[in-house]
Amino acid sequence: MAAHEAEVLIIDDESIVCERLKEFLESKSLYVETFTDSEKAIERLNEKQFDVVVTDYKMAGKTGMDVLLSVKENSPETQVIMITAYATIEKIRGAETVGVFEFINKPFKMSSMYKLITRAAKITRKLR
Amino acid sequence: MGSVPDCTKVCHADNAAPLFEDPEGDKVGKRVFKKPFDFGGRHHSLKSKIEKFQSLLRENNHVLDLIAEANEMLSGDFLFDMQYPRQLAAKLESSVKNVIVDLNYIADNRYLELLRSFDKTKSVIDSIIESRHYIPRTPLLLPLDKIDRDARDAVGGKMMHLGELKVRLRIRIPDGFAIPVRACRMFFKKSNIDDRIDTVAAALDAGEIDAKEAEKILLPLVREAPLPRQVLGAIRQAVSLIGKKRGGKIIYAVRSSAIGEDGALSFAGLHDSVLGVLPGKVPQAYKQVVAGLFNSRAILYRRIHKEPIQSALMAVGIQEMVRATAGGVVYTVDPNRPDEDAMIITAAPGLGKMIVDGGGNTDQFTVSREPPYNVISRKLAAKQEMYQTALGGGIQLVGVPAEDKNTPVVSEEFLAVLAETALRIEHCMKRAVDIEWCRDENGELVILQARPLKIENAPTDINRIALEASKRHKPLIANRGMVACKGIAYGRVVHVTGEEAPHDLPHAPVLVARNPSPHLAELVPYAAAVVTDVGTTTGHLATIIREFRIPSIMDTAVATKILKDGMDVTVDAEEKTIYEGKVKELLKWQIFRVAEFENTSEYRVLKRMLRNVAPLNLKNPHHRKFLPKYCRTYHDMIRFAHEKSVEALQNDRRLSSSTKNSACRRLNLDIPLDLTVIDMGDGLKSNLKDRRCNIEDITCSPFLSLIEGLTAPGAWSANPAGMDFDSFMSSAMSPTAIPSMTARRPMQNLAIISDNYLNLSLHLGYHFNQVDSFVSETRNDNYIYFRFMGGMTDNSRRSRRARMIAVILKKHDFMVEAKGDFIVARIKKLDRAAMLDRLKMTGYLIGFTRQLDVKMVNDSMIERNVSRFMEEFYKKAEIE
User: Fold this and answer.
1) Which of A8, B134, B402, B602 gets the most CB atoms within 10 Å of its CB?
2) What span, in angstroms and rounded, lies between the C-alpha atoms of B261 and B247?
3) Does the beta-carbon distance from B80 to A106 stay under 8 Å?
4) Terminus-to-terminus CA distance in chain B, angstroms?
5) Which of A21, A29, A110 sits opposite B77 (nearest CB)?
6) Residues of A in contact with B73 (CB under 8 A)
7) Whole-Å CA distances, A57 to A111, B369, B579
8) Higher pLDDT, B548 or B632
């Protein structure tokens, strides 16, 4: 068992999302790394396996879907939580939901995100 | 009708802005609506108007829901990015616009002027979202004791914090005023400094000049440019007001308070203050301080942080200069050893300026953070020189008298006072702080400045320590209720009841109350924390709580039972948990938090935006300023539209004459009351044939309950005024025979209803009752709004009756605002049965008080009639 309840990687090009989530999740004793640049995040995913990846869907350059593919390639057990804007959620649902643990709309409650992450992490660790 | 037409949300007024300003320009409507309105004048059918009214209510509710939601976003529980304020603005804009269009349809284009106000507010909101640099429209002179958190954008962090120390903590600061950024903007614009800044910025960008050269151009330019008349006037007024208040010969300190300073960007130390200024030299000192924006260090700093120098603006504080006998700095945490429970205090004789400047000649003390604040260690300097204010203005360096050279500058008693004050400031700012202090000629402590202290090497395992500590302490209340504002606080429990404000308030108490009440709201700024049994995180109280960032848990259900008066508790409004005693580790965790949500630009944009959306300034429809041009916020506009649309429907003569309209009926009652009912849907039984209806036909539950109260035996038939029959009849029976107070033409008694909604306007003789209510199974949507005004006797009797009504309503948990004979009362979010009970009571009360002012000859009648009411109403209830 690792020292932390979950090791999480967060990707969102809005730095406020990264900063606040990191602060909040760390206060819950999770291990957190954040990236505002999805390209760099994918590089990091090639190096390290995380329990949970939280990524924004719509980003410039590599999108949330690119992140998802990269995760599934490197560490298929890792669960992915996708942050979306309200309007896009229905659009994606039908198409490419395979492999996404859960979609969550912005704005969201940080405590809900925490619950989601711990649930996802349990599954990841069970699968490993 | 699925949601709430709640016009009762009274939000925090914007203190910093002028109360009312006349709108300018006349092209507003055209800009928003490309085509002029085509409402077709006065020939809309009543039916179509009622449909528009329904749509108006829907949009009205939607706006209020959006406001509530946005307010909740500020609690810190939610994560949002810049997209949120943008989308919110678009949604609000569309709904408010629809409300205004509907109102004009119903009221035959009588309120097109409202579009002008709308467009003005919209353009302010647009500019807030587009730009990070927002200049609030404030007066050019703001007294420091009127400054609160809201004023940060206007007066900068430094002056905002000072104002807060004075207002909230009642800490002594030097008397003074802030000259807000608006003055600086005006100065740069009117004196053509803007153009030169642009040129210099371009040259900097092109690499033609460096920061030093830019400074050489801009510094003298600003120092020598003439001040606009208004700005000069404001500065002189500040000087003269301080002079008058303090008396005698005083000198001034003119201090910088840059926007962004102490906030997201720290300009600490980049901008200079001017000390020891003679009265006549203050305007020059103002320019000197403003010029500090363009010293080379500040220019470099801005360029590094990609802040264009064109957006650099400065607010300035003009304060009395304290003739200090000692001064220095406090760090509430030792930046090198943040784990220790100790603070660092430095002290130098005289003005203490040398410490701030980083010079020597200072004593240094390490003082415990725990009472009685013992000195842990000291390093005394052999003090040779000190700064003093010079008689001819300015400051001068003088020798320290021989006998003082080797004695400590301050006593241990003074250090304890200083330490205690510093921790109060830390608690209030929820951060480790860096405080500049001095001791005046009478030996008393004066705080000159307080700002967040940056700690580079904050303890890394602070989360774990806090977590473990919280496990060691037994919670009194664990994981209950809802967080209105996050944070951790420690203090003594004080119970606040709805009826009376507590007298002896300890410093920074933990306020505990059953309900959110007006008393509670008033005490919020002085509280360490607020905990309630019931209440919501979207109400008025929660808004105020967030305004002052007071940690708060609402709707705990049990707080008043578990938390006893006088208990010392730690409120953890991060985890909705309350511990007995002090959990030091949690409090310390808070002051080391890295990211301060309130300083993010997303938070501030949303907050600025809401300031133009949420506050309700137009509360009294009978006030002479209840006009479209005084609608400053979206809330004002929908409130105005709601009121005026009801009034327009009420005034529609077709209500009484039309036979075609099936939605509109006369209600048969046993009491002499002429009442027209408009059914917007499912408010009456559907199979009614004639134009009249009976109580049994009512399916609108709030209406039915109210009518039950109004027609209950004793409510109406009692004639407490003892008036003769004729005058009784004339005042009660035929409203059309008596001129109404507010309308040019007689108004009808009107109930607009649906299955869950009631809007009732009753003109009983000379006074006016309005009830607006929504009651359904969804508790959160439920509310009653009750307004009462008027009477025919002299003012004192009328206001006695109003006071009596207020007491009765408060006894039934209403929030009541009373002014003279005008009362607004509201209650929200109780379950259906409790709401219907209160509506019945309200109906009874309307009947009961109908003539009462005639009888209210002295104050003792208030209590007597309150008891009579309670007795009669509840006796009746028991029989039933």
Assistant:
1) A8
2) 32
3) yes
4) 32
5) A110
6) 107
7) 20, 47, 41
8) B632
Question: Which domains does chain B possess?
Answer: 175-320 (3.30.1490.20), 326-439 (3.30.470.20), 462-591 (3.50.30.10), 672-879 (no CATH)
**Chain B residues in contact with A113 (beta carbon < 8 A):** 79
For residue B829, pLDDT over 70 is answered with yes
pLDDT digits (tens, 9 = 90+) for B137-173: 889 999 998 887 668 788 988 898 899 899 888 899 9
Closest in A23, A26, A85 to B83, CB measured: A85
Q: Is residue B516 within 8 Å of B815, Cβ to Cβ?
A: yes
Neighbouring CB atoms inside 10 A of B372's CB total 10
DSSP string, B52-114: HHHHHHHHHHHHHHHHHHHHHHTTSSEE--THHHHHHHHHHHHHHHHHHHHHHHHTTTTTTHH
Q: Which two tokens mark B351?
A: 């003005």
Residues of chain B above pLDDT 70, percent:
84
B488 - beta bridge partners? B572
Question: Residues of chain B with pLDDT > 90: what percent?
Answer: 40
Measured in whole angstroms, the distance separating CA A8 from the mean position of its chain's CA atoms is 7
What pLDDT, on a 0 to 100 scale, did the predictor assign at position B1? 37
Q: What is the mean pLDDT of residues B822-831?
A: 86
Does B337 score more than 80 pLDDT?
yes
Computed over every residue of chain B, the mean pLDDT equals: 82
Q: Which residues of B touch A110 (CB under 8 A)?
A: 77-79
**CATH for A7-127, options being 3.40.50.720, 3.50.30.10, 3.40.50.2300, 3.20.20.140:** 3.40.50.2300
In this predicted model, what pLDDT tens digit does every residue of B841-868 receive, in sequence order? 999 999 888 767 666 777 888 888 888 8
Which of B66, B79, B83, B603 to mutate to test binding with chain A, by most A CBs within 10 Å of its CB? B79
Distance CA B348, CA B366 (A): 15
- Mean pLDDT for B208-218 is 94
pLDDT one-digit tens code per residue, B494-521:
999 866 667 778 888 999 998 887 678 8
B578 within 8 A of B572, measured Cβ to Cβ: yes
Task: Give the Cα separation of B467 and B454 in Å (integer).
Answer: 23
Domain boundaries, chain A: 7-127
Q: Which residues face B433 on adjacent strands?
A: B452
The pLDDT assigned to B158 comes to 86
Q: Does pLDDT of B28 surpass 80?
A: no
B121 pLDDT above the threshold of 70: yes
Q: What is the pLDDT of residues B437-476, one digit of tens each?
A: 999 999 999 999 998 887 777 666 667 777 788 788 889 9
Q: Which residues pair with B682 in a beta bridge?
A: none
3-state secondary structure B466-519: HHHHHHHCCEEECCCCEEEECCEEEEEEEEECCCCCCCCCCCCCEEEECCCCHH
Determine how many CB atoms are found less than 10 A away from the CB of residue B359: 13
- Name the strands in the sheet holding A79-84, side by side, starting at the edge strand that comes first in the sequence: A31-35, A7-11, A52-56, A79-84, A100-105
Contact (Cβ atoms closer than 8 angstroms) between residue B455 and residue B348: no
Strand B568-572 relative to strand B577-580: parallel, antiparallel, unpaired?
antiparallel
Q: Give yes or no for a contact between B103 and B644, defined as CB atoms under 8 angstroms apart.
A: yes
Lowest mean pLDDT among B112-121, B125-134, B335-344: B125-134
For chain A, report the end-to-end CA distance as a whole number of angstroms: 12
Distances (CA, A) of B36 to B150, B188, B629: 37, 39, 19
Amino acid in the structure at residue A70:
S
Buried b (16+ CB within 10 A) or exposed e, B659-693: eebebbbebeeeeebbbbbbbbbebbeeeeeeeeb
A-chain CB neighbours of B466 within 8 Å are 27
